[in-house]
Structure to design on (102 residues):
């Protein structure tokens, strides 16, 4: 998991919660280890194309604005984000027994 927090042209700014940190015996010090202190940068072209992106919307209005923005962007260019209105179909394991050997 990476937390994308901004952009700089073709680069994404992110926080990596997996940074290795020293062990802390004091609870106050341990609490500090839950937060990233270093902003990292990655080129958009270097992001794995199978990335799952989540958005935080504080209000329903924020959500509606995000959906409108993503839909408008999809009309104007080849989007890197695809939205699905319905969840993907679930395939039952029993339906696939002929295709795969368990």
């Amino acid at each position: 998991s990476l937390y994308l927090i901004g952009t700089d042209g073709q680069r994404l700014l992110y926080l990596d919660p997996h940074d290795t940190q020293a062990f802390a015996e004091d609870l106050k010090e341990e609490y500090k280890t839950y937060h990233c202190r270093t902003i990292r940068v990655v080129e958009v072209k270097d992001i794995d194309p199978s990335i799952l992106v989540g958005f935080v919307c504080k209000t329903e209005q924020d959500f509606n604005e995000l959906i409108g923005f993503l839909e408008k962007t999809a009309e104007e260019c080849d989007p890197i984000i695809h939205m699905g209105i319905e969840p993907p179909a679930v395939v039952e394991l029993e339906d696939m027994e002929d295709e795969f050997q368990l």
